[in-house]
Write a structure and sequence with these properties.
The protein has about 375 residues and is α/β, with parallel strands linked by helices. It contains 12 helices and 13 strands. The strands form 2 sheets. It has a 7-stranded mixed sheet with strand order 10-9-8-7-11-12-13, with helices on both faces. Strands 1, 2, 3, 4, 5 and 6 form a 6-stranded mixed sheet that branches. Helix 5 (about 150-165) crosses helix 6 (about 180-195) and helix 5 packs parallel to helix 11 (about 320-345). The protein starts with 10 loop residues before the first strand and ends with a helix. Bound molecules: nicotinamide-adenine-dinucleotide. Nicotinamide-adenine-dinucleotide binds near residues 182 and 306.
């Protein structure tokens, strides 16, 4: 059930192409600040409710990052076989792009999400006919692919600001990163370059832990070659679920949703959790962590680097300028939210939501 409220959703579309069997959903949540921005999720199980929830997160994320975008999201329901079949995937993306002519880029701008990346954005804009209908496109189409690590770069800056806020020494801080994909590997890389000690990383196959620190460059190479971080031999191999309870200062969940929950919240030892992934902590677990004074930087602040790079692409900025913009915006917003939360004695998520809602309300007039 989608509950409509003072913000939206403005449009919920079901798109079906009987000839090519495209089954898709588009939710445009709120366009007060600009066209609804959000990725195309391609999974067998994507639902209208899921797309709506993600579109709403985009409304807040864009408002908080002060971008001229609203919130939107789309989903293509496709089987695992279709997702693996490049030809079929291309067909689906093209027909979806075509179906959204007149809607994208006018009131919706697509981007990568689960199972869609820069090539999928190419097919989408080919079908749509307008290069502005998606961001995260390949470089030859004037794009700034998410594969350049923008989101991880934002998570890195958010972590630095939060550490400073807590008065923790960067050179002493021990960090664990759950998930070593696009977001996790870049966050780990930038943090290690700054001198922080990455003591554990995990992926779907397991967790590697060394309290003296891991060599992140080497890990990236090993992950690329073998697909598994546990092939890195200098450390203890643990089940991936062990990462949440390790003795670290900073925990960066950067893979799945709901991984920190009532089942493991009492094991958490970190003083700071920076949400690289979307909704990695359940709301009941978050409440307990807030009571324990564990500082949580919410997803829609910490992982906004991707959408900020989308804006940079939309404006025709170069890569370097995109990284700079991400640094400026993420630093400013993380600080703003943490200070407001502390002043009002509320959680950072509540503070962030207050700011985002106020900006959207103002734009709605
Ligand atoms: P990705 O597919 O590149 O990487 C996901 C990683 O998670 C992989 O290394 C995978 O092995 C790992 N993983 C899967 N199951 C795991 C488990 N049980 N334990 C530990 N690791 C596991 O995905 P990504 O683009 O890095 O996205 C990660 C998260 O960040 C998602 O929640 C996504 O919605 C969010 N996010 C991504 C971006 C972006 O620009 N890529 C932007 C905003 C938010």
């Amino acid at each position: 059930m989608i509950e409509k409220d003072e913000f939206g959703p403005e449009k919920i579309l079901e798109i079906y192409n009987p000839k090519l069997r495209l089954n898709a959903i588009l939710v445009i949540d709120n366009t007060a600040l600009g066209p609804g921005k959000g990725g195309i999720r391609m999974t067998p199980s994507v639902t209208k409710e899921e797309v709506f929830r993600l579109a709403r997160v985009m409304t807040w994320k864009c408002a908080l990052a002060e971008l001229p975008f609203g919130g939107g999201k789309s989903g293509i329901i496709a089987s695992d076989e279709e997702i693996k079949d490049k030809k079929r995937k291309r067909e689906l993306l093209k027909v979806f792009g075509k179906a959204l002519r007149g809607i994208a880029p006018e009131t919706y701008i697509a981007a990568p999400d689960i199972n869609t990346g820069e090539e999928e954005m190419r097919w989408f804009v080919e079908g749509n006919g307008n290069l502005n209908s998606a961001t995260g496109k390949p470089k030859d189409l004037g794009g700034l692919p998410h594969e350049l690590g923008f989101t991880g770069y934002g998570v890195f800056h958010s972590t630095l600001v939060a550490l400073e806020f807590l008065g923790l020494d960067l050179n002493e801080a021990k960090v664990a990163v759950e998930g070593f994909g696009n977001v996790g590997s870049f966050a780990a890389k930038f943090l290690a370059e700054k001198g922080l000690k990455i003591v554990a990383v995990s992926d779907s196959k397991g967790c590697i832990y060394n309290e003296n620190g891991l060599d992140v460059e080497k890990l990236i190479k090993i992950k690329k070659e073998s697909g598994k971080v546990i092939e890195y031999k200098e450390g203890k191999i643990l089940p991936n679920s062990a990462i949440y309870g390790l003795n670290v200062d900073v925990l960066i969940p950067a893979a799945l949703a709901d991984v920190i929950n009532l089942g493991n919240v009492n094991e958490i030892k970190a003083k700071l959790i920076v949400e690289g992934a979307n909704i990695p902590i359940t709301s009941d677990a978050e409440k307990i962590l807030n009571e324990r004074n564990v500082l949580i930087v919410p997803d829609f602040i910490a992982n906004a680097g991707g959408v900020i790079s989308s804006y940079a692409e939309y404006m025709g900025f170069e890569e370097k300028k995109a990284f700079k913009l991400i640094e400026e915006k993420i630093k400013k917003n993380t600080k703003l939210v943490l200070e407001k939360a502390s002043e009002k004695n509320i959680s950072p998520r509540e503070a962030a939501l207050e700011i985002a809602k106020e900006r959207v309300r103002r734009a709605m007039g």
